[in-house]
Specification:
The complex is a heterodimer of chains A (328) and B (100).
Chain A: H1 2-22, H2 26-46, H3 50-94, H4 98-125, H5 133-139, H6 148-156, H7 158-179, H8 194-217, H9 225-241, H10 246-249, H11 252-275, H12 288-317, H13 320-327
Helix pairs in contact in A: 1-2, 2-3, 3-9, 3-12, 6-7, 7-11, 7-12, 8-9, 9-12, 11-12
Chain B: H1 3-24, H2 28-52, H3 60-91
Classes of the chains: A mainly alpha (328), B mainly alpha (100).
């Protein structure tokens, strides 16, 4: 029975992945990608990785899906006519070239098939045993938390997590640069849609509470900083959609402080304990649990702010050409 | 056949689909989706091996690495999207057009 579920889930994931790449329309691709992310999240629940499932559903399917949907506004308006034009030109021109097109495609297909066989073989041959389960299990009592994944993320491999927060900030900076650095403009329209207003009023406290719950429960069960951060980031995105961009409403230095708070506190704490003779990111055993909770909270706030800022920046990319036109 | 075997085989297929999509699809957004599907394949392989090496609980190190990896993949995906939108704004191109 369980084999049946796993098999069906595997087929579903493969089918959705294929369809999202083969779908003729871009909006179909994006929605199938949403569905693919959720199918993958289910697969991870089946594999016992609930933390990963929450992260996948929230950030890979949810947040990235929102960014893709937002990008569709840019692309979808022109794609139909442009696509038709290029299609018409190509079909008239390429009818003669069809034989020259066939060979590369055949080679591509064969190469891809061989690649698939090699990767299947490689995966089959990875030796069993090993892994770090035993090591993690024996050190778990000293980590200050009860959930092994949180212990690895914030204690055993804290360096990775610290760098990860850095990577998100780096992504934000790169997006700043591509979009042209600009201060968030204050739109004067508050959401006129009564439904959107109600949704914001209803979901903001729910999302906040649920995020805080996930953050706290990360100590003893699946959940933690990243999952909470996405929920809190969703609040920021909702407020932005409702005409209340968070970053435009607070002073600039507060925004910057919130963005670097998680990374900064993590590093500062590492250096403080390093001066007492510990290695970087080593916690004193007595306070490990409390310190991890503080680090997680600050990191979650920072990541939530970074996700909101990423969305706000990408969202404003569309509006920029208009401003230029009016300036000219 | 164990559950992890099904998923580790699936991971190879997903990776191959992704890499095929990176090369074969034209539009920027589809290329970005393809890279994320590739990433999904890699993460699935990690987690399925974590399940295989489980003792009282599944190996937590791959889980933590995968959570880190997902977040990094999303950050890079968002950056790729920003680049794609910028290219579209500046040139009106929505795919790499080598003929021009």
């Amino acid at each position: 029975m369980s084999i049946l579920i796993d098999g069906l889930l595997a087929i579903l994931a493969i089918y959705l992945a294929l369809q999202s790449l083969l779908a003729p329309r871009l909006s179909q691709s994006v929605f199938l990608f949403f569905a693919f992310g959720l199918a993958l999240a289910l697969a991870w629940v089946r594999l016992g990785a609930v933390d990963v499932a929450i992260t996948e559903a929230a950030i890979a399917a949810g947040f990235l899906g929102v960014l893709f949907l937002d990008a569709l506004r840019d692309f979808s308006s022109t794609i139909s006519e442009k696509h038709n034009n290029t299609e018409a030109i190509q079909s008239s021109a390429s009818r003669k070239k069809i034989k020259t097109f066939l060979l590369p495609r055949l080679a591509f297909g064969v190469g891809l098939g061989l690649f698939l066989l090699i990767s299947l073989e490689a995966i089959w041959q990875i030796p069993q045993g090993g892994g770090l389960t035993a090591a993690a299990e024996s050190m778990l009592p000293e980590s200050g938390v009860e959930h092994p994944v949180t212990a690895v993320l914030l204690n055993f491999r804290a360096y990775d997590t610290w760098l990860e927060i850095g990577v998100i900030l780096l992504g934000l900076l790169a997006i700043f640069v591509t979009g042209g650095i600009k201060i968030y403009t204050k739109p004067d329209v508050v959401a006129k849609d009564p439904l959107l207003r109600q949704v914001i009023l209803f979901f903001t406290p729910v999302l906040f509470l649920f995020g805080a719950f996930l953050l706290y429960i990360g100590k003893s069960g699946p959940g933690g900083a990243f999952q909470a951060a996405v929920l809190w980031g969703a609040i920021g995105i909702l407020l932005h959609l409702g005409g209340k961009p968070v970053f435009a409403m607070i002073p600039r230095w507060v925004g910057q402080l919130v963005l670097i708070m998680g990374l900064g506190f993590f590093l500062l704490m590492g250096f403080v304990f390093m001066s007492g003779g510990a290695t970087l990111f080593e916690y004193p055993k007595a306070y490990a649990g409390t310190l991890i909770l503080i680090v997680e909270t600050l990191a979650a706030i920072s990541i939530a702010a970074a996700l909101t800022a990423i969305y706000a920046n990408l969202n404003q990319m569309k509006e920029e050409p208009k401003e230029n036109e009016s300036a000219n | 056949m164990e559950a992890y075997q099904i998923y580790s085989l699936t991971s190879a297929v997903l990776f191959a689909i992704g890499i095929g999509g990176v090369f074969a699809s034209k539009h920027f957004i589809k290329k970005i989706i393809a890279t994320i599907i590739m990433g999904g394949g890699v993460f699935l392989a990690f987690v399925s091996f974590a399940e295989r090496d489980a003792l009282t609980f599944a190996d937590p190190v791959p889980h933590a690495l995968v959570i880190t990896g997902i977040v990094v993949a999303v950050a890079s995906g968002a950056f790729a999207l920003a680049l794609a939108r910028r290219i579209y704004q500046l040139t009106g191109e929505e795919s790499f057009n080598n003929e021009k």
